[in-house]
Amino acid sequence: MTYEINLSSEQLALFAFIENERDHIFVTGRAGTGKSTLLNHFVNNTKKNVAVVAPTGVAAYNVGGQTIHSFFGFPFGILGNQPIHKHLYGRTRDALRSLDVLVIDEISMVNSDMMDAMDTMLRAARGKNKGPFGGVQVVMFGDPYQLPPVPLKPTDEGYEFFKERYRSLWFFDAKVWDETKLLRYELHENFRQHDDKFIEILNAIRDGSVTQEMLDTLNAAGNRYPSNDDVIRLSGVNHKVNAHNAKKLANIPGETKFFEANVSIGELKSFGATPPADTTLELKIGAQVMFIKNDDQNTSKEGGVNRRWVNGTIGHITKIVAHNHVKVEVDGEEFDVHQSTWEKIRYQLNEEFDEATQRFKEVLVPETLAEFRQLPLRLAWSVTVHKSQGMTYDEVVIELGGNAFSAGQTYVALSRVRSLEGLYLTAPITLRDVMIDEDVQRFMNDAPSPNYDGLF
To answer: What one-character DSSP code corresponds to residue 451?
Structure first.
């Protein structure tokens, strides 16, 4: 099986707009519209000095960037009531001064306080007279209908601070946007689903406009047993996922093999409490697994990328060759799978000769601080809705009906599957399961979008 990745005309035109303009822009879109593909294309093809950051370690590893805290040198806690400029050391100052574009992935998880702290730190490094973000272009990717910032309870530290200072926790309510324009563009072409009726229902669940009639159609389609016992299950809670995977593994005859991760550079603690893959992976021949990283051994072809598997591909272990080598069957093809590498990086300044100007210029380049190596696999009879983010499945069992507990959770789960034909529900989805954040609705309905007439 080979996956070819090419940009659509919409994505290419938006890339050109970001590359040629200086506007701050939020790139969003429904699940499956290629936000991550566009982000990676921009980072790999821009002529600007760019750094990529994300709010969590896992998100940062996935885009080859740094966490926001690491890149800016932020202390932990509420940033708005700390003198964060005192944490602006030489290496960080140099990196911020050389920056043209700051790319932020999973921006919906970034709260308003952190957004303003990034503005503060960039102005401190580059000069307040350069305006918001010290003159750096900020390009953000994410979908607020899917991933919210971590909520605060009245008993949490910082609750009163946010209540008094900000309209909401969301990045779009940061004070910096009172001083500068934030454009928004929503990608429209859906690469995951092609059934217009299913797309209509998903869009309505995403923005809260879903009707009971739409849910009746959805529930009627999903009210059946899956085609086989290995169809992946999406659940809202970890303990259900772990219990289901452990039970399925135990039911397979044969010996369990243990695969240990190793860190070839740096230390395991560099990757924090949530390393990018299991530090100890349990497998048997016959185990159903999911790839958790795109194929490292890809080849370019006519501007695209050929991959044997992508993040989310489902397969089965057919042979255990060595402590770091297994064979996995995917849709009738057997692949040799070795350890993959996840890098923890930091940006540093290097000099590079510019052929166009015949001069040396300073560029930001990633420096590897630690390398985490493990088979890019996870047991996959079941997975949490949260960890299914960004995945695509041909078939999926969703055990969420009547039990959704956060905004966007139902939409994320349902939008993983390609079609209604591949959807199985353990319980009906109700209107109570469709929760939309009122602040997100306000922003998405009111935020200015650029006029792209003539550009696309």
So the answer is: -
- Round to whole Å and give the CA distance between 105 and 141: 5
Could you read off the pLDDT of 154-188 as tens digits, one per residue?
Answer: 888 888 999 999 999 999 999 999 999 999 999 99
Edge-first strand listing for the sheet containing 24-29: 66-67, 50-54, 101-104, 137-141, 24-29, 182-187
Rounded CA separation 162/112 (Å): 9
Q: Classify strands 233-235 and 382-384 as parallel, antiparallel or unpaired.
A: parallel
Query: CA 169 to CA 163: how far, in whole Å?
Result: 9
DSSP labels, 83-125: -GGGG--HHHHHHHHH-SEEEESSGGGSBHHHHHHHHHHHHHH
Helix or strand or coil: residue 377?
A: strand
CA dist 219 and 376 (Å) reads 34
Question: Considering the chain, what percentage of its residues have pLDDT values greater than 90?
Answer: 62
pLDDT in tens, 301-333: 554 567 789 888 999 999 999 999 999 999 999
Provide the token pair at 433: 């399961």
Which bin fits 22, alpha (ψ -120 to 50), beta or left (φ > 0)? alpha
Q: CA 109, CA 451: separation in Å to the nearest integer?
A: 27
Measured distance CA(228)–CA(230) in Å, rounded? 6
- For residues 385 and 408, give the distance between their C-alpha atoms in angstroms, rounded to a whole number: 10
- Residue 406, pLDDT score: 85
DSSP 172-237: GGSGGGGTS-EEEEEE---SS---HHHHHHHHHHHHT---HHHHHHHHHHH-S--SSTTS-EEESS
